[in-house]
Amino acid sequence: MKTLSAFLLAAVALGGLHTQASAQERVWRCGNEYTNNATLAQQRGCKIMEGGNVTVVQGTRPVASAASSSGASAARSPAGSPRVESADQRARDGEARSVLESELRKAQDRQAQLLKDYNNGEPEKQGSESKNYQKYLDRVAEMKAEIDRNQSDIDGIQREIGRLPAAANR
């Protein structure tokens, strides 16, 4: 009787292992991802894969080149793009700098005018604003928002100028 119970116990254990093995064979597809986790698949609404085995190969990470690992910050052009002579590139950089500096001057002049009109949050009232105080408050809030936007523009232009190579022999 002991052998029979040991045999039955072994058969139940093997049956349990077979059930676990078949559960691991189920694979769900979630878009471009695959999983064998049933709860995760249900949460994401994945579809079960029928038939053959799925083999997933992880991609390799690109190896850092010597230039990027040494801290060089030179921007690389995409493969196949035409090579630009250094004199031409300097001319382009100089032109970009002059355009940005012109835009910066315009934005700074506009900021000065906006601040003058804003008058530290107390601009002069216009026409119907003396009777409708809310209209005045709305205009003051709009002026403040305009000043903030213009300052953000100035900051962005200054960042762009800072990214350009240093001006040579100006």
Summarize the model shown.
The chain has 170 residues and is mostly helical. The protein has helices at 2-25, 38-44, 66-69, 86-118, 133-163, and strands at 28-30, 33-35, 47-48. It has a three-stranded antiparallel beta sheet with strand order 2-1-3, with helices on one face.
Model description:
With 170 residues, this protein is mainly α. 58% of the residues lie in helices and 5% in strands. It has helices at 2-25, 38-44, 66-69, 86-118, 133-163; strands at residues 28-30, 33-35, 47-48. The protein has a three-stranded antiparallel sheet with strand order 2-1-3, covered by helices on one side. The chain is flat and about 80 Å long. Residues 3-14 and 16-24 have low confidence and may be disordered.
